[in-house]
Specification:
Strand content: 15-25%
Distance between the termini: 24 Å
CATH topology of one domain: Uridine Diphospho-n-acetylenolpyruvylglucosamine Reductase, domain 3
Largest sheet: 7 strands, antiparallel
Strand order of the largest sheet: 12-9-11-10-14-15-13
Oligomer: single chain
Structural class: alpha+beta
Helix content: 25-40%
Number of helices: 23
CATH class of one domain: Alpha Beta
Length: 565
């Protein structure tokens, strides 16, 4: 790694009008985005309360009626005249950062906006049955008072069940349970033909079950999912431990904070939750959490920290205090811990509102936070959107655990983005090869954190403005993302598809495996009805002709072209 030691030399960059608009964008956020966001959050909350008042029987009846509407709508489509099927959701509503440009081409809309109910909490089977627009805030408000939770609860309130399944979802418990989609036991899917099917890992639709994750809704329309529940306690006992050294030392400190030796997954020292934040090339804080009862939390001498109050310091800054005062332990109410990054959107809130972390703002206006990501996107315009693509990074790098030191060195050299978020997750060896899969033969290497049935991976979250941009230097954002993607392909890593991507189709199918996905596309009639996952994620506008030619190529060939080089 000697070639990474010398810093890159970059030229100074001249400011343009967009720089000043971005610098003072907080004015629009304060007077427009935050008030509207708060109103929408409140209305959504009232809708969730109204839904909870309904019996499960009534919710299921409404669900069945809404499914029939979807089926009827699909039956109205004329394949020779109408475009490919898309949901009716507006492009800016998606939480992801990539442009939803595929909806600029002619398309046939199906409205799924009514699918936002929790249909059942089955305490005997330990299953939550949810519609795709149920979000994490809604599900935790229902389950946490019952001392239950989804096995993987993504941190941000607005993230939905459908997005976490069709796209990507992770949390600090993923080192035990895998990604969000790994905790699903059944999907209800409306196929291109209008047929409603229930896919599980051991029924006749098992191939569809394994193909749904990461497919971005291009195999059928998800209308419900049955998701694993686990028992929890009222508090999270969280330990903050500072780590120092070079980036490789920080990476090893992170690995040692939770990962046992090969196959030792039953080690009692493995925590319930894990995350690490790297604040600069020489300092980070490792956090490990274990569920604790309220009796334990309230014992004399223990510290309880309700981080969910609007006036509290932003969580990433609170964790950073461990660098000054050393290792410490505190108890956080479980639901507040789950959503610890919501109020400040990890640390993106500091860019959106430069003074948002100040005590006076938190006390006076913190109750308005966070701004809805969808509204931030809706108010940014084309020029601002392009600016962020070049001058800002929001990417997740999913890499094998043992390659985290290399990944941190790469990010430090190429992007200089801090803080960084590290969160481990299991990548299971499944009966079939899915779009993402462990390294072949990983179980023979007996590496730290791995088991015979799963390889330990890590999400390296790269979210912020790169150092060169802060210093006023030239930064090629598209080039940096392209190099990141190449690095991931060469190191058996993966890039979640919510992010902006520079991959062409050949490289896309080098990163992901096309086999099972393309088989299901053809078997279940998705080709010619739903856009393929590459064209749905592809950067830039998708013309109708471009999409049709790609679809026809899939019909004419046995499988998507995969670069074997």
């Amino acid at each position: 790694m000697a070639d990474l030691e010398a810093p890159l030399v970059r030229e100074k960059r001249k400011k343009v009008w967009v720089d000043y608009f971005v610098q003072f964008r907080w004015i629009i956020v304060i007077f427009v985005v935050l008030p509207i966001s708060f109103t929408l959050y409140f209305l959504t909350y009232l809708g969730d309360v109204w839904s909870q008042w309904k019996s499960y029987e009534k919710r299921q009846k409404e669900h069945d009626e809404n499914v029939k509407k979807v089926q009827k709508r699909l039956s109205e489509r004329n394949p020779s005249k109408d475009g490919l099927v898309c949901t009716a959701r507006k492009p800016w509503i998606a939480v992801g950062m990539r442009n939803v440009d595929y909806k600029r081409a002619r398309h046939f809309e199906v409205d799924l906006s009514a699918f936002r109910n929790i249909l059942e909490i089955d305490e005997e089977r330990m299953i939550a049955k949810c519609e795709p627009l149920v979000n994490m805030g809604q599900i935790t408000r229902t389950t946490v008072p019952m001392n239950l939770a989804l096995a993987v609860v993504a941190e941000l309130d607005d993230l939905t069940v459908g997005g976490l399944i069709n796209g990507y979802g992770i949390e600090g418990s993923s080192h035990l349970y895998g990604l969000f989609s790994d905790t699903v036991v059944a999907y209800e899917i409306v196929l291109a033909s209008g047929e409603l099917v229930r896919a599980t890992k051991d029924n006749q639709y098992s191939d569809l079950f394994y193909a749904i994750p990461w497919s971005q809704g291009t195999l059928g329309l998800l209308v419900a999912a049955e998701i694993k529940l686990i028992p929890i306690k009222e508090y999270m006992k969280l330990t903050y431990k500072p780590v120092r050294g070079n980036v490789r030392d920080l990476a090893q400190g992170y690995i040692d904070s939770f990962a046992p030796g090969f196959g030792d997954e039953d080690n009692e020292m493995v925590p319930d939750f894990v995350e690490t934040m790297i604040y600069n090339p020489h300092e980070g804080v490792c956090m490990t959490g274990n569920y604790a009862s309220k009796e334990e939390a309230k014992m004399k001498g223990n510290t309880i920290n309700s981080v969910g109050w609007w006036f509290k310091p932003w969580f990433y800054q609170h964790a950073q205090t461990a660098l000054k005062k050393g290792e410490f332990v505190e108890y956080i109410p479980t639901r507040e811990y789950y959503h610890r990054h919501t109020r400040c959107l990890y640390w993106e809130g500091k860019l959106i509102l430069p003074f948002g972390d100040q005590w006076w703002f938190r006390f006076l206006f913190g109750w308005l936070m966070p701004p809805k990501v969808s509204l931030l996107k809706a108010t940014q315009g084309e020029a601002i959107r392009n600016y962020y693509h070049e001058m800002h990074v929001i990417q997740d790098m999913l890499v094998p655990l043992y390659k985290v030191p290399d990944a941190l060195e790469w990010v430090d050299r190429e992007m200089e983005v801090y803080p960084l978020w590290l969160c481990p997750h299991r990548l299971y060896k499944l009966p079939v090869k899915t779009m993402i899969y462990p390294e072949p033969g990983f179980e023979q290497e007996c590496r730290q954190g791995d088991t015979p049935y799963a390889q330990m991976y890590t999400d390296v979250g790269v979210y912020y403005t790169p150092g060169p941009v802060f210093r006023g230097e030239v930064f090629d954002g598209a080039g940096a993302v392209s190099r990141l993607e190449t690095w991931l392909i060469e190191n058996h890593g993966f890039q979640p598809q919510y992010a902006v991507s520079e991959l062409d189709e050949k490289k896309f199918w080098r990163m992901f495996d096309a086999g099972l996905y393309e088989e299901c596309r053809k078997k279940y009639g998705a080709v010619g009805t739903f856009m393929s996952v590459y064209y749905k994620c592809k950067k830039g506008k998708k013309t109708e002709k471009e999409v049709q030619e790609a679809e026809q190529a899939q019909l004419d060939t046995p499988q998507a072209e995969v670069d074997q080089a």
